[in-house]
Design brief:
single chain; mainly alpha; 9 helices
Length: 201
Amino acid sequence: MSEQFNTPPAADLTALPTSGPPFYTVSLVKLTVMMFITCGLYGLYWYYKNWSRYKAYSAKPIWPAVRTLFCFFYIPSLFSKVDAALKETGRGGIPYWGVYVAGIYLLTFTPSIVTGYASGMGSSPSTALGLIPTMAVYATTGLGQFLIMLRVQSFINRLDGKSGESCRIRFTFWDVVWAVTGICYWTLLVQIYAWLSSANM
């Protein structure tokens, strides 16, 4: 039978695709730089670009902005669709993608679990644990979530369909906007840290 009449095994990819990859292709170096500069805020853009690209590719009536706003609940859906796309193109899928989802959820709630007893002591986490240990908890769990995102992006880049495309580092106008926003955010965090440090003295 002609290949054009074969039914794809992944139900979510049955719609006629547009040209280009089904998800957001970005250099791992660029993703790392942008996530650091924006203190993680670039992750929202990352989710939006993936859902926006998937909507254009699959022609499905989804709302990328809504899925970005509630990205926490749509993480399993995104990872499973990347896995399905990889299998559809014969690239093996994401091994144990459910473990990555569980890891993100666990890392998200870990700071609240670690610092949760502070409320029972009638004090803030920074007072109960100390400001530096509290920040270290949030920084460590945030880094863990980013490493999972980076791992998933490495699988997404296999779908770009262009040799070397995922290794190119190109910054767009919106990347610059995000960078400026991130620098402002970092400045605000430094000011808050300085204020909390002086308040705890």
